[in-house]
Write a structure and sequence with these properties.
Helices cover 36% and strands 22% of the residues. The protein is an alpha/beta fold and 231 residues long. The longest helix has 15 residues, at 215-229. The two termini are 23 Å apart.
């Protein structure tokens, strides 16, 4: 199994990433991070247990920083031929309280598995499910060809809707893991409302949803579709 992400040297809670990645390794994942060359130079000395992959596929020209596209991660999974892959945000902690990994693998045979995080301040026991977004996607290699190319990127918005919505439009089941598995220490958001709307416009254009005028409408529609089609 691999856990694939893009570690951010500029993350507001940088140390949370170290805690998160340690938890992935403990859970049995090989960790892979896609980054631009200058970020790898900054990160590889501290994250010696991470396999860094250099990529040019980022959105610095749009957002001012080299946020790596979700498609770059998907294509790495395709090239690596990993049977089981977890695409995950870099500060999300795995705490497999119910020994769920075998269940997740089983679910992945039938569709793409999406996961909500549980936000906490002090301890995982106080974690509250964040319903409106997804931070982990467990992908069986059999489904890897269903995802179209996108410039939506980790560290920005709407890529977490792009992945399950791509499964839905390709008539692949979406399975939502209900057991506690992903946890996130709360921090201030790292994106602006303008960036959120801009990524909403990108999502709208890429997914053929021009009938909606505003990003808010796109978000509400797609979230309802995900809820409707998720098992």
């Amino acid at each position: 199994m691999i856990a694939i992400t893009s570690i951010s040297p500029g993350h507001k809670n940088y140390e949370n990433q170290r805690i998160a990645i340690d938890s992935w390794i403990k859970a049995g994942y090989e960790v892979v991070s896609l980054n631009v060359a200058e970020e790898i130079e900054l990160l590889e000395k501290e994250f010696k247990d991470v396999k860094f992959i250099h990529t040019f596929r980022h959105t610095k020209h749009i957002f001012g920083k080299p946020y790596v596209t979700a498609s770059a991660l998907i294509d790495y999974i395709k090239e690596a031929k990993s049977k089981y892959s977890l695409l995950i945000n870099s500060d999300i902690i795995i705490d497999d309280q119910n020994d769920s990994v075998e269940k997740i693998k089983e679910y992945s045979e039938d569709g793409v598995v999406i996961m909500n995080r549980r936000d906490f301040i002090n301890s995982h026991s106080e974690g509250v499910v964040y319903e409106r977004g997804f931070d982990g996607f467990f992908i069986n290699y059999k489904w890897i060809d269903i995802f179209p190319q996108t410039i939506l990127s980790l560290g920005q918005c709407f890529w977490d809707y792009w992945l399950p919505y791509s499964a839905i439009v390709n008539k692949v089941k979406v399975m939502n893991l209900k057991e506690p598995y992903l946890f996130h220490k709360k921090h201030n958001v790292q994106y602006s409302v303008d960036q959120w709307r801009r990524t909403g416009d990108i999502f709208k254009a890429e997914m053929g949803l021009a009938k909606f005028a505003r990003a808010e409408q796109v978000s509400d529609y797609v979230f309802k579709q995900i809820r409707l089609h998720t098992r």
